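Justification of resources, computational component.

The compute hours requested in this renewal are based largely on the per-chain cost of generating structure records like the one below. Each record pairs the submitted sequence with a full structure-token output. That output is archived, and it is also reused by downstream analysis tasks.
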Amino acid sequence: MSSVPAKDGLLTRVARRGGRADRSALGAWFWDIDWLILILTLFLIAIGLVAVAAASPATAQRYSDATHHMAPLYYFWRQLMWVCVSLPVLFVVSMLPADRARRLALIGCAGFLVCLMLVPIAGVTVNGARRWLGVGIAQFQPSEFLKPCFIVATAWLLSLKGKEGLSAGMLMLLTGGLTATVAALLMLQPDFGQTVVFCVVWLALLLISGVSTRMIMSLMGAAIVGVVAAYIFYGTARTRIDAFLFPGSSDPAEHFQVNAARATLTAGGWLGTGPGGGQMKFRLPEAHTDYIFSVIGEEFGLIACGIVALIFLAIVVRVFVKLLDEQDDFRMLAASGLAIQFGVQALISMAVNTGLAPSKGMTMPFISYGGSSMIALSVGMGLLLAFTRRNPFVSRSPYVVKWSGE
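The structure output for this chain reads:
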């Protein structure tokens, strides 16, 4: 008979079995996944389908003509198709072990960076911007897929601080060079909004990684200089900023978008006009993508907008709460960066719709219409769930650790 105490043996078995008898990959995923983040994400996707259904008639009418008439729910059915494609992607990526998820993201970063370089040469122009590669339904936006991969690659590089002779300054220059390359390629498209997201996430990761205050202050100064330079030398940024700061002297079309979005957002009051009852949405230029938040405000009310904002906030806060006791630098940086990107993109979209920021062409995560956006966001959320997975019966129980180690 074994001389191991019964209590010791029981706790050891609990540790080895992960707290449950099911040791399969699916069983481990079921017990390790953060269900709150996953459920809130699925809730956002459901809200997005309802919102796209509300915006679809306005967009279909705008893009219909004498030779090509779109059905009122054309964009809704297409979005439903993209959701059906994206959900399996989200679940599969979230099941990956952290090392495999990191490897996938690093390969993706290299691949999509090359695709981003090809956009100015072989890209497809839509609404005056060249951001897509491919033909027909096979078109995709490389910058959307690059975002989560770039964040994981940057987190991995910054986690190497102090290893292999790599100093914080060297890693800052290395990741800064990568960020500058991506920013330059994005501004060629032009895509000022995505440029802001990439740069903000990079600065946030530097701060979290423990870069000195002196370096952070220097970078903040460089960021201010960059914004001024963009205003002087980059026509797209200057047009958007002028429309926001000097509406009377700016391009009337830019000013119209800001006013139309704000008017649509508040047209429904607190409770909204009801599904299909909105009329102001027919004035919006991109009701199903950039200004989907305004459509939610008109048809479902400002209270619904507040609920959507709180869901985004809850996801970000939940991630950072889980990371409070994270010991692995890479997982902490990767999950933090993905959460920040998710929150910043939502914040910019809401700010544009409410008139608090210049028009940037920024979609709202999981809410706005778009195949590339939906699939790429599913990859990003899958990576986030993979990096925050933690078995509550092993990793977080001091009793299991104590007894199984004796």
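Confidence is low (pLDDT under 50) at residues 1-7, 9-19, 394-406. The two ends are 18 Å apart (CA to CA).
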